[in-house]
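Researcher: We're teaching a course module on how sequence relates to structure. For the next exercise, students receive a sequence and then see the predicted structure as C-alpha cells, so they can try to spot secondary structure elements on their own. Here is the exercise chain.
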Amino acid sequence: MSSDPAPKGQRIPETGSETDTRSFQDRREKERERERERERETEAMASMAAAVPFWRAAGMTYITYSNICASLVRGCLKEPYRSEAAAREKVHFAVSKWANGKPEKSCE
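Model: And here is the predicted structure for the students to work with:
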C-alpha cells in the first residue's frame, strides 16, 4: 500500500496490476462524467429559473405591459389611422356598489 493517502471516498488498488489500475481509471472517468452531467443539469435548471418575462422582472403585470405597447403603437400611427385608434381607445363604464349579492341603487 502507498504512503500517500487516498483521496476521500476512493480506494487505491493494492495489487498494482494493470487490470486493477485500468478498472480504477475507468471508475474515475465514470465518476467525472457523472459529475459533469450533474453540472450540466444544474446549469440547465438555473437558466430555466432565470427565464422570467422582462415585464414581470420590471414589476409590471401583462395587462400593464400590453397597454403600454398598444399606446406606443397608436402613437406611431399616421393620420387618419391615429384618430380612428384614439376613438376606439375610449371606454365608458359605470361603478356601482353591491350588497347581499345585488347592486345598490346609486344616488347620482
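Model: If you want an answer key for the exercise: The first helix runs from residue 18 to 49. Residues 70 and 89 are 10 Å apart (CA to CA).
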